[in-house]
Structure formats: structure tokens, C-alpha cells
Amino acid sequence: MASEGRCKLSCRFQVTVSIACVSGKGGVGKTTTVINLGAALAERGKRVLLVDCDPQSNLTSGVGLDPYDERPGISAVIGGHVEAGDAIAETSWSNLWVLPASPDLSAVEGELASSIDKELVLRDALRRDGIRATFDYVLFDTPPSFGFQTISALAAAGEVLIPVQMSGFAIRGLKEVLRTVHLVRSRLNPDLAILGIVPTFVNLRTRFSRQLLDGLCELANIRVFATVITPTVKLQETSLAGIPITAYASSSKAAAAYRELAGEIAGEGPAADV
Prior knowledge:
Layout: E1 17-21, H1 30-43, E2 48-52, H2 58-62, H3 74-78, H4 84-87, E3 89-90, E4 96-99, H5 108-111, H6 121-127, E5 137-141, H7 148-156, E6 159-165, H8 168-187, E7 193-200, H9 207-217, H10 233-241, H11 245-248, H12 253-266
Parallel strand pairs: 1-5, 1-6, 2-4, 2-5, 6-7
Antiparallel strand pairs: 3-4
Helix pairs in contact: 1-12, 6-7
């Protein structure tokens, strides 16, 4: 299981890829994507930090930690009670760390002094002591809304990954995601960029999914990753087991899909056999 206390990280000052996974709608595979993309990147030897910005704490439990344990997490970091390095925990998998959340994250905004810069607290906390620079990738999971936690993640990230479920409602919600990104870019993070769209819950056997997927690919100026995530009970089981799909069902199609997505994002092609 994950260890507690200050994580033992050697500073390797480098360019870190920081990605916020944002949807604004629940049930599109956002947390699942962050966990399994992170695990697939870690398999490739990348040092990966997962940051749970959702009070539901599903990412935290999804990597085997109990959100109700008394440990410092992202709430304490944003509240200024601990340094980020004291709240980051190792997971049971090599190269994979997590900044965990708990349900009290929903109240942390109210504890901050009223300031137009409070959405930058998380960004600044990860920059102190070179914490962020010790990782190759920092992946932020966000709640299904555009409130304080999501804006904080977008202010701290360099790029945005958008899971889009193959449904009319989710695709319409894409416009709200893009509007929010534009707002954050204009006020808090001018370098924020759209990394691309990951199609989720794609059933290629249905005409509806194929048509929606084709429509996504026609969107101007937004990359749609070639990898598509198809529905499988294995991914549902991993959320209960607290184990990434790459470890829970390593030879499954879902594990292969997230390894493929990791290869697309890393620009390195297929992973070596694991």
C-alpha cells in the first residue's frame, strides 16, 4: 500500500508535462483516464504525480488509499498547513505518486482569504522547492463542475485533456469546457493549451457512436486522439479494487488502450512488453 510522510524525490530539474483532465460532466471516464494514463506512463519509466482535485476523492481511492485516513493531502496544501512534498504519497506502483484528496476539500475555498489569486495557490505550492520539477508528468483529476477546484487545476496545468463520452449531452458540454479554458487562459494562465480529446465509452459496433466519433474528428483545431476507450466491466472493477487497469488486468484491451494513449501523449509509440 501507499506510504505516508514526505515522499523521497530526487530533484531532476526538467520540463514537466502538466495535464488537467476536465469534463464538467460526471460519468465520462475522467478519473479512470487519469489513473490509468498515469499508470501507463509510469510503466514507461516516467515519474508521474497524480493530483486529486475532486472532493469525491475517487482518484485517491482508485490508487489504493483511503480518503478518510488522517494524512495530509491537497486540502492541507491549499490551506497552507503543509508543504506539497509532505502530502505527496507513494503508491504501490513504481514511478507513480499521488497528492490525495478527502471530502473536506469541498470546504477549503472558504478557508482562504478573499483574493483574486486564490486559484493560484495550488500552482504555487507545486512550484515551491522544485516539487513539480521532480516529475515527468503531473496529471490533475477534477470534479464534474467548473468551480474552485477545477479552476485551480487549470491554473496549475500546462495542457488540458478532455474525455468526451459518445453521447449528445457530453459533446454539447464540450463547448462549456472550451469556454472555461478560454476564461482561465485570459485571467490566470495565458499559456494553457488544449492537448486534445479522448473519446470514451465508444461502441464501434453502433452507428451512433461511429457518427459522433466522426463528428469529433471534424472539429477544427482540436486534436482527437486515435486511441478510443471502449466500455468494459474491467474498468468498473478497478475502481472498487483500487488498482490501475494496467496491473489489475494487464493483458486486457482496456489496458492496451491506455498504454496506446500514453504512447500518443508521450510521442514515443508503442510501449515495450511489460
